[in-house]
Write a structure and sequence with these properties.
Blueprint (H helix, E strand, L loop, with lengths): L1 E5 L2 E2 L12 E2 H14 L1 E2 L2 H8 L9 E7 L3 H14 L4 E4 L2 H5 L4 H11 L2 H14 L7 H4 L8 H15 L5 H11 L8 H4 L3 H9 L3 E4 L12 H19 L5 E3 L10 H9 L4 E3 L8 H6 L7 E2 L17
Bound molecules: zinc ion (ZN).
InterPro entries: Glyco_hydro/deAcase_b/a-brl (IPR011330), NODB_dom (IPR002509), Polysacch_Deacetylase (IPR051398)
Protein name: NodB homology domain-containing protein
Subcellular location: Secreted
């Protein structure tokens, strides 16, 4: 069986981050048609039986997962699933629910959707040079003028923001960037994320809500106490909000380097039963028995009708 990952799913609304990589609603519908014709979309009870080892997962079994607690999931995904009598697993980072602020990862998406990679990268390197405590990682500075291809500059820009700039300086740097690129400042969390009420509605309509950390960091970049806080607090916060136990976790970014063996232990200690990565693969009986905290997923873009409207490189 396989779990499929979705992020932005929307018609061409022009709403932020418009132009950013997303699965067009039509593509989502076509993909669901395709999956319903050729695969077995597992009912919630069958999926749980498989996870608990009470039933062998069908080789063509599929579950749908949706990351980041995006408003798209309420506006466009939920009605589509409801109509087809399907369900999904929704992984939500809790900061936007609590303080109504956008997560750094999505501020970067909005910047990338509004401005060219080259101008963003040039401005960012400029800001880093001016910043007393920050130096430009060599790898990012070298060859920047040799290769001005937009795809490459976006990749480098995102890498700097998401991986290289120390988390304690990231808010300052993003603020300086948004000052230079003001289009980004007009976007509010309410334009982008589910509200607590919408999340409750999702839960009440039979969807399953899982945690996706508090602030969507690369967990392996944090100290163990900070990782523990991100993992534990996201579970507690969602549990309070929905008045339920939260059994599922998805590692932010989700690649092999985004979490460690210790991270996995912390996920276990926090009380989660199952966790998903973004490493591609099918979920086998062995995975469920031996590695329930690193279940693989497959991105929707790799499946029939998953072509994206605006395909920027290396999206997460
Ligand atoms: Zn995410």
């Amino acid at each position: 069986m396989q779990a499929i990952t979705y992020h932005y799913v929307r018609p061409e609304t022009g709403e932020p981050p418009a132009g950013y990589y997303h699965l067009p609603l039509e593509g989502f519908r076509a993909q669901l048609d395709y999956l319903e014709d050729t695969h077995t979309l597992l009912s919630k009870s069958t999926f749980f039986e498989c996870l608990r080892g009470d039933r062998r997962p069908p080789a063509d079994g599929v579950v749908l997962t949706f990351d980041d607690g995006l408003l798209d999931h309420y506006r466009w995904v939920l009605p589509e699933l409801d109509e087809r009598d399907l369900w999904g697993l929704f992984f939500v980072a809790t900061d936007p629910l609590v303080d109504g602020r956008r997560l750094p990862v999505h501020r970067v998406h909005t910047l990338v959707s509004c401005y060219s990679g080259t101008e963003l990268l040039d401005a960012l390197l400029d800001i880093l040079r001016d910043h007393d405590q920050l130096s430009v990682p060599e790898q990012s500075a070298e060859g920047m003028y040799a290769d001005r291809d937009t795809g490459e500059s976006i990749r480098r820009f995102k890498r700097l923001c998401n991986q290289d700039i120390p988390y304690e300086h990231l808010p300052d740097v993003l603020e300086a960037l948004e000052y230079r690129f003001p289009e980004d400042r007009s976007v509010e969390a309410a334009d982008l994320y589910l509200s607590p009420d919408q999340l409750r509605e999702l839960d009440a309509s039979g969807m399953v809500v899982g945690a996706h950390s508090v602030s969507h960091p690369v967990l392996s970049r944090l100290s163990l106490p900070d990782q523990r806080t991100e993992i534990r607090n996201s579970r507690r916060r969602l549990g309070e909000l929905l008045d339920t136990e939260v059994d599922f976790f998805a590692y932010p970014y989700g690649g092999t380097s985004s979490y460690s063996a210790r991270t996995r232990e912390l996920v276990h200690e926090a009380g989660f039963e199952w966790a998903f990565t973004t490493q591609p693969g099918t979920i086998t009986t062995t995975d469920m028995a031996n590695s329930p905290l690193t279940l693989p997923r497959r991105d929707c873009t790799g499946i029939e009708h998953g072509e994206t409207a605006a395909s920027l490189p290396d999206q997460t």
